[in-house]
Amino acid sequence: xxxxxxxxxxxxxxxxxxxxxxxxxxxxxxxxxxxxxxxxxxxxxxxxxxxxxxxxxxxxxxxxxxxxxxxxxxxxxxxxxxxxxxxxxxxxxxxxxxxxxxxxxxxxxxxxxxxxxxxxxxxxxxxxxxxxxxxxxxxxxxxxxxxxxxxxxxxxxxxxxxxxxxxxxxxxxxxxxxxxxxxxxxxxxxxxxxxxxxxxxxxxxxxxxxxxxxxxxxxxxxxxxxxxxxxxxxxxxxxxxxxxxxxxxxxxxxxxxxxxxxxxxxxxxxxxxxxxxxxxxxxxxxxxxxxxxxxxxxxxxxxxxxxxxxxxxxxxxxxxxxxxxxxxxxxxxxxxxxxxxxxxxxxxxxxxxxxxxxxxxxxxxxxxxxxxxxx
Amino acid sequence: xxxxxxxxxxxxxxxxxxxxxxxxxxxxxxxxxxxxxxxxxxxxxxxxxxxxxxxxxxxxxxxxxxxxxxxxxxxxxxxxxxxxxxxxxxxxxxxxxxxxxxxxxxxxxxxxxxxxxxxxxxxxxxxxxxxxxxxxxxxxxxxxxxxxxxxxxxxxxxxxxxxxxxxxxxxxxxxxxxxxxxxxxxxxxxxxxxxxxxxxxx
Lengths: 375, 202
Known about the structure:
The complex is a heterodimer of chains A (375) and B (202). Chain A is an alpha/beta fold and 375 residues long. Chain A folds into two domains: 1-112 and 312-375, Rossmann fold, CATH 3.40.50; 126-310, Glutathione S-transferase Yfyf (Class Pi), Chain A, domain 2, CATH 1.20.1050. Chain A is built from eleven helices and 15 strands. Chain B has 202 residues and is α/β, with parallel strands linked by helices. Chain B is 42% helix and 10% strand. Chain B has eight helices and six strands; from the N terminus they run αααββαβαβαβαβα. Chain B has helices spanning 8-17, 25-37, 40-56, 73-76, 91-99, 127-136, 150-162, 188-196; strands spanning 58-59, 66-67, 84-88, 106-109, 141-144, 169-172. In chain B, the strands form two sheets. A four-stranded parallel β-sheet of chain B has the order 4-3-5-6. In chain B, strands 1-2 form a two-stranded antiparallel ribbon. Chain B is globular. The N and C termini of chain B lie far apart (64 Å). Classes of the chains: A alpha/beta (375), B alpha/beta (202).
């Protein structure tokens, strides 16, 4: 799918702006704080129904105004669709082809996007919880059952931890604790199995996208660090029952330790996703540019996943990613992706497009809330 | 919450209504001004009904259900199957089960579910009373009909483990598709659960 037209009204620093986009590559250039990212935010908002930068919708309305409106015309499955989102105070009105949608869930996902923002670097640099969240969001989008098991797991974990804290000050009741071990193990095993299936597919895709970006000079592999001893989810296949039993046994063995610590010491909530470049662990060794390439490769793999599920490619939003990539990687990225997906990217510096690309791209200048384009 | 701008008795009554579940300031004000238009006799009856409900109702000494006579009418009913016991979290669940007219056994009301987070342990719900009954009555089957939530499942599991020494069959009610509904309208998780709980047809 691709965006044909985007209209921002009283959104952030835009009074009234029309953008006619190229189906392949769109480059927004301009100095800092001119409103480049605001454009990406608007597109993201139309796709997901919330901003990636703020939880307060009021921040999105231009100062001194009471409402903002975003409008987009997309082409999807050979059909034009018009999506409109109106913000007024705390209320949102969503329209598809002029028809008011009573539920936001009917609106979300009409336009599909994958966003790469500078904050995404925390996927490599941040703690394990950032990476678990990445897996949970990606999986949850396509599998409601995953979200169910994850939710039940989290609730059971809270209850079990509350009980452990009680036992820390008194005597331990093994039978009572086991009442929470069993559901924790059952939901946990479901979470593990679904994560392993997802990561196996992701791992294949990401190897390919990383190879494209790095001109095949480096090899990226994923691994899942499972807190259940002796379990290698990505290399040994197992069943829900076997996993659940192993988990339950391990929990029982940790009763004493868990009581002392007041929390559950193993389970899907303690796992990590690891990245290796040519066999070396990335966190301790990769350069800034390599780390950025890894996150980019993950996002690009996400594009392929969405394509497999939705049947169409999403729109790719790249916020200031080029600055830390060398020329070759910049070109690999733009060339490899713009053939199949529509890209909207922002950059403070002028980028060098290969000659063959200039026909396939549209350049825009962003200057304090006004965008001027060449086409 | 003292700035309603009303005379003290009105403010006081608004605050009392707001103690009820689902009643916020707006609803409370509306209810109060309705009460002010009611005939004095109706108001008296209304307040007496509140007091009666509080004073005359108690927990049945057998099944712990809410009742005005002890033992309650279900426990007194000699036509009921005394060998089957359906265990529920709330008095409201008994009423729901009774509306089916399909269950003819007896009940046991727990008044809650185990939830360590909220400080509710097995000793805080009517499990002791249940054990007492198992020791004294001729019970053959326990049907665990607690809610399909983390807390309800944990409570069911706790009871199942606890009653193991008694020679009694323990069953758990099924979850799955609503009857008469179309498959396409069921949510994904319910549908997946229904698949899990499938049975051979012949």
